[in-house]
Amino acid sequence: MSNHHQYVNDAISLLSELGVYRTPKDTWAFTDLEIASSCYIHHSRMPVAITAYAAIDPVFAAGRIPNYTLVNLVDKTPCMDGIEYTALAMICGVQPPIFPSDLRGEVFGNTAWQIVNDYQLESCFIQVRAYGSQGRHFTMRPQGFNWEQSTPIPAILTTMRKSYRSMTPIQQIMVLTLMHLYHQGPDKCFLIGGCPTKIPAAEALRILRRDGRALTIWAHLVCHYAGW
Fold first, then answer.
1. Distance between CA atoms of 108 and 102, rounded to whole angstroms?
2. What angle do CA 133, 178, 103 make, to 5 degrees?
3. What are the tens digits of pLDDT across the range 9-60?
4. Are 205 and 64 in contact (CB under 8 A)?
5. How much is the pTM?
6. Residue spans per domain, the chain
7. Which residues pair with 145 in a beta bridge?
8. To 10 degrees, the CA torsion angle through 201, 71, 41, 36?
9. Are 170 and 207 in contact, with CB atoms under 8 Å apart?
């Protein structure tokens, strides 16, 4: 059996352990609400769990994993394994990710720049001299810094934050996702000073799913995370 099929089979088992399954109509439902309500969720499975539960009932998802933000979800991306990435892709309706590192980097980098271009996020990200070779994301950095000297540029940071605050919810979700795939952990430099960054994960996923295409490209990006 190929690794691809093994990942899919194991992802289906993981989702069953979380108490959810895909219906014949390609929607998601609970196999057992008691399991979904009380099963142990390992920290690296939290993104899968919140995404699965939000696909069924965002209110249940928010209550099942309280105070879990979009940033919390994205920050866990590097901890996920192939099974968890595959499960997340399945929930979001995209093809299972590929795993050879050189190919992942190519997909991840191209998708990151596609999101910047499609969602007009140029005010938050800049193209720089490449500092890595496995993917175009190595030419992308957040705005507001002189990256050659690693020094902030206050005027550009102020402009970036103002732009972010005026964005649509989907644009803000995409910016936060890219920012925290670039650098996990507390943001002490970029989107500070009153920028709305504590978006609940269940709400972010509801917004993405309502749009449809946004969920697809967001999941394609996250599931192909290749280091940055």
1. 10
2. 35
3. 999 999 999 999 999 999 999 999 999 999 999 999 999 999 999 999 999 9
4. no
5. 0.95
6. 3-92, 101-223
7. 152
8. 0
9. yes
